[in-house]
Specification:
Chain A has a nine-stranded mixed β-sheet, sandwiched between helices. A two-stranded antiparallel sheet of chain A has the order 10-11. In chain A, strands 12-13 form a two-stranded antiparallel sheet. Chain A is 44% helix and 20% strand. Chain A folds into two domains: 256 residues, Aldolase class I (TIM Barrel, Alpha-Beta Barrel), CATH 3.20.20.70; 71 residues, Winged helix-like DNA-binding domain superfamily/Winged helix DNA-binding domain (Arc Repressor Mutant, subunit A, Orthogonal Bundle). Chain A is globular. Chain A is built from 17 helices and 13 strands. Classes of the chains: A alpha/beta, B alpha+beta. At the A-B interface, helix 9, strand 10, helix 13 and helix 17 of A face helix 13 of B.
Amino acid sequence: MEKKDLALYIHIPYCVKKCDYCDFLSGPAGSEEQAYYVRVLQKEIRSFETISSIYKVRTVFFGGGTPSILEDRHITRIMEQLRTSYDIDGEAEISIECNPGTLSTDKLKTYRSLGINRLSLGLQSANDDELRCLGRIHTWNDFKENFILARRLGFDNINVDLMSGIPGQTMDTWRETLEKVTELEPDHISAYSLIIEKGTPFYDRYSTPEGRKYLPGERDDRLMYHYTGTYLAERGYERYEISNYARPGYECRHNTVYWRMGDYLGFGLGASSFLEGKRFTNTSDRDEYWDSAKGSYQRFRALEKQSEKATMEEYMFLGLRTLAGIRPAQFEEKFRRPMQEVYGGVIDRLCTGGFLENSDGALRLTDKGIDVSNRVLSEFLLD
Amino acid sequence: MGKDLSHIRNFCIIAHIDHGKSTLADRMIEMTGLLSLREMQSQVLDNMDLERERGITIKSQAVRLAYRAKDGSDYMFNLIDTPGHVDFNYEVSRSLAACDGAILVVDAAQGIEAQTLANVYLALDHDLEILPVINKIDLPSAEPQRVIDEIEDVIGLPAQDAPQISAKTGLNVESVLEAVVDRLPAPKGDSEAPLRALIFDSVYDSYKGAIAFIRIMDGCISSGMKIRMMATGAEYEVVETGYFGAGRFIPCEELSAGMVGYVTASIKTVRDTRVGDTITEKDRPCSEALPGYKKVLPMVYCGLYPADGAHYPDLRDALEKLQLNDAALQYEPETSVALGFGFRCGFLGLLHLEIVQERLEREYGLDLVTTAPSVIYLVHKTNGEVIELTNPTNLPDPSEIDYIEEPVVSAEIMVTTEFIGPIMQLCTERRGNYLGMEYMEATRALLRYELPLNEIIYDFFDALKSRSRGYASFDYELKGYVRSEMVKLDILVNREEVDALSFIVHADTAYERGRRMCEKLKDEIPRHLFEIPIQAAIGSKIIARETVKAVRKDVLAKCYGGDITRKRKLLEKQKEGKKRMRQIGNVEIPQKAFMSVLKLDEE
């Protein structure tokens, strides 16, 4: 019997210094804690190994935090554990998130030898003032050096994360960032709008009426977004998801699994999984996680599948994030009900409003729909 | 205590808000030993949560204190706390009628304030003896002598001997108790005469039924007696008589002339124990009822709707229960296209409305949508029929209307002379009819106006206060109805008329009101995925328009490591926000928008 596809996510909750806008589960930690964390991670990875008989791993993603600050021996141990416990496809996409300024020749060589074949570099901006404002630890030059080094060592699939909506950012500085980055010809670009999250220094600084004055306005933000699409298209990058652009053939396979509701397992503190119709998320409490990693699989077995209603909702609001959109025929195949029967009213209304369009046999967001995707997608939650 | 009235004192306390009425009352209760310090909850008399929070008294309260004076004799004090708002003026007047004297508390730092005066004059109208007390003398900014002079100058009361106290620390409170004995009069009355008792308030108790708070003017009342309510004619047999402990009822064998207490008689609701009614003995009635009784009628109506239509039965039950204890509250079912099933409710005034609304929300856990308050209009139709209109939606077609009459009040506004100009201007803006002005003394004047009730129910009191920096007091009573050019203003949201937002307004101010209503709604209605026109119309004529612009951007945050649950929560929050709104066509209108008309004058 042919094995089913599986994606693996490994969360590394450590970084050199937490950025001022960051609300992810991450923070600085000493070498000893890192070593202990990796041991716990191995236990959790092992606890699921029985599923390797029915799944083949197609993608692996190290996210954080900044996974690249882990000492090389730790990354090596994790990769070895993964290969021991699972059947990893020889063609698998294996990505690691890196912060500019944390990479070296030795580190990159180690990654290559472990089979890591995709780098995701968190640049955010090519403007050093903006980087400082964000509380990043690196400059544009640090990034550029790391990028060139990675290319020289043979990494032929590199993503660069960019951010619009940074305090003080203008259309001009954003244009400059795009130009400088595309000059280096990365294979993939993620461009997100900054969201001011509660509990971050940015929230205290920029959520007040006074603070908001420093943020680009709604109009400028949208101009930047629309410009991004046009400019990157000219440079040969196609938008395949609301915030993701790639040269043909370089779409991130791992993220596509999330949007297409494929099976994935997340290991580590606060990591999320979706496997066999069950959604679950690890605890975000360090001590609790350390006690529970070993029994992870047992807990998963005891879970109930999520309802068909929830699955349908997710199928819609995740699938519509991709520019390929949703095919009614596939919906019907998966849920054995016509999409029109469940969502006809919503779809008609949103199409009339110009937020969705039906073309080439697929339903997808229009540019107007992307701008207000939060509103549009929330319409697909059923009562 | 027999029939010797010389050891009874029935009195109330008059004070401007924050001048220390409740603190003094607490202190007196404590010092007469009715409660130990530990049993005291601050402000015993204001025992509704709402009252404590707002620092105002809504219901009358009473408490009996036993005091041994320095002369060695024992006295019975009945302290009656009175409501303090113009909505409840009638209740105040009945409470004062139950007293023989009043303590006037004045803040030694602030001096006399306008509101105090209105109440002092009301007390003088009821021939109450007034005992001035200077409070808060412990404050560094206290100027007792200046305040004493002021009391003598402004009110004309001798005040040189006024006790100077600090109710907070208890300093000299003893001297207030002595002054009550020495300077306030004992009640008069004949215990042998036929029963004549004034109902000054009542509460509903689920075991005892309506409990009437009474002051016996003549005669005696005891259990088993057959009594008659002189205004309603209803007859009952007395079950229990008693007096007031702090926060509880203490039964006693009988109440006789001069005393204050309560009576129960298996009375089903407080509508049968009407404030101001006279209780007499059925078989030996008094010749004449006590003066001053009025049937309390609602002056203001509004629609109350459950935010969630499924809670309609809960709202009905809650109103039923509230009405047991609130004779002035009226309600009947109605239906709105925008809001579904609800009730048209009648209130004494806007404060009363707010109190009922808050109690429904707090005590009964209901989430409510309230429509704009309206007064009662008399609509004369061409066929001779006259309609009492309490809901703007029910206004007949203009072709069927001959003319409309609106209620007017005669208002008295007391104000320091420097603010006469701004206050007169305010009254003119509110379509007031100037009747006259008298100088009370060199710096204070009494303005008399005839004002349409619909101009004062919303925010007149607030406007008055802000334009006089708080130095204006205001009193009114319903005068009657006058013919007026009233029109119905409709609001269209995304070209659909929203019935619950319609209101009746004078033709001259319709344009201005319509414009401001549109502006207000523009702020209240959140941006949608499409542009929403908001229009004000009279009949088919659009008189104002605003536009709620479409949302330009609302993009989800980065979805990290496949954490779909978090993303789902964001979407659910978005959707949940919509649930708290009312769907009118394609537009979601927040529930508080239905009260927008109330806030048109806010800057």
